[in-house]
Design a protein that fits this description.
Aminopeptidase, 7-stranded mixed β-sheet
Length: 324
């Protein structure tokens, strides 16, 4: 996903997540810790249920684009969103990957309250990396990554959020975009990352789509995660960073400036939609990320329901704030 290149502002500057060459087809289907908000209404996020949703994704195996596991997981994600959202769309197209040439994508989009004018965009990538090229054992470098944290954790939070909002109701319009082919990039080529998001940014699921802002979830499950204010989020969407961190639930959210990461949110911001990245950044790590990043050890043991609870509750708190 994202390899450290240099350091900026007292924190690691990290790069992650191409230009697309495709046409779009869309199938419609029916230093201190941040303040903890208490304005989540009647809804309390269920991190254990989210953990189970992460486990169900990992049960398919690594969700590497072009594999049977990827295809089966796409069907499951679509079905799961249909149970919670008013409309589900599968956006298909072709992107150009750095190593594997042209590749088909499936961005899976769940829409809640499609007629609401005030909208919140929520994103996470659901594919996993084909190569564990950061594994300490070079023998594992050509093995695929399971992606329990790097992929499944963010998706699980959004699936569970949709489920709970279906039960509790919301007046807000919410668009959940599960983006594909995020993690097939090369560390010296930042435009080779986030290909599904780049495709969506060029071909949004609704013409003229303009939500209030967006939130990206990336690697949000580690028991010792640190969610600092990501640098580019602050540059592009500083007021919304303030909102999210003021609504943050739990001690994993650190109210301090963190590193700069070229992640999916960069391409959303470049499309004119302010977008905030909630991502686990480590200032004490050589890579800038958790030890399991891009290794064969990114398994279910790497994620924790308490952290998923904090992230999901933060999203519920943001939604409650926007509903006021």
């Amino acid at each position: 996903m994202k390899m450290t290149l240099l350091y900026i502002i007292l924190a690691a500057l990290m790069t992650a997540c191409g230009n697309t060459n495709a046409t779009s087809t869309t199938e419609a289907t029916n230093d201190s810790t941040a303040t903890t908000s208490t304005t989540a209404g009647k809804v309390q996020f269920d991190g254990n249920a989210a953990l189970n949703l992460a486990q169900q994704q990992c049960a398919f195996g690594p969700r590497v684009p072009g594999t049977p596991a990827h295809a089966k997981c796409a069907e499951w994600l679509t079905t799961t969103l249909k149970a919670s959202c008013d409309t589900v769309m599968v956006q298909t197209g072709t992107v150009q990957t750095a190593k594997s040439g042209p590749m088909g994508i499936k961005n899976i989009i769940g829409i809640i309250n499609p007629d609401a004018s005030q909208r919140l965009l929520l994103l996470a990538h659901w594919d996993t990396r084909p190569w564990a090229d950061n594994d300490p054992d070079a023998a594992n470098h050509n093995k695929p990554v399971m992606g329990a944290n790097d992929g499944a954790s963010g998706v699980a939070v959004l699936l569970q959020l949709a489920h709970q909002l279906k039960q509790a109701g919301t007046t807000l319009g919410i668009d959940i975009v599960l983006v594909d082919v995020e993690d097939m990039g090369e560390n010296d080529n930042e435009d080779s990352w986030g290909l599904g998001t780049q495709f969506w940014a060029e071909h949004p699921h609704k013409s003229g789509y303009k939500p209030v802002f967006g939130i990206l979830l990336d690697m949000v499950g580690s028991s010792d995660a640190t969610f600092t204010r990501e640098y580019y989020s602050t540059q592009y969407a500083g007021g919304f960073v303030d909102l999210v961190w003021n609504c943050a639930a739990g001690n994993h959210f650190i109210n301090a400036q963190g590193g700069a990461v070229t992640d999916d949110h960069i391409f959303v911001n470049r499309a004119g939609i302010p977008c905030v990245d909630i991502i686990d950044l480590r200032s004490d790590s050589d890579t800038g990320f958790c030890p399991e990043w891009h290794t064969i050890h990114d398994t279910m043991d790497a994620i924790n329901p308490a952290t998923l609870t904090e992230v999901g509750q933060t999203l519920l708190n943001v939604i409650a704030e926007l509903e006021k």
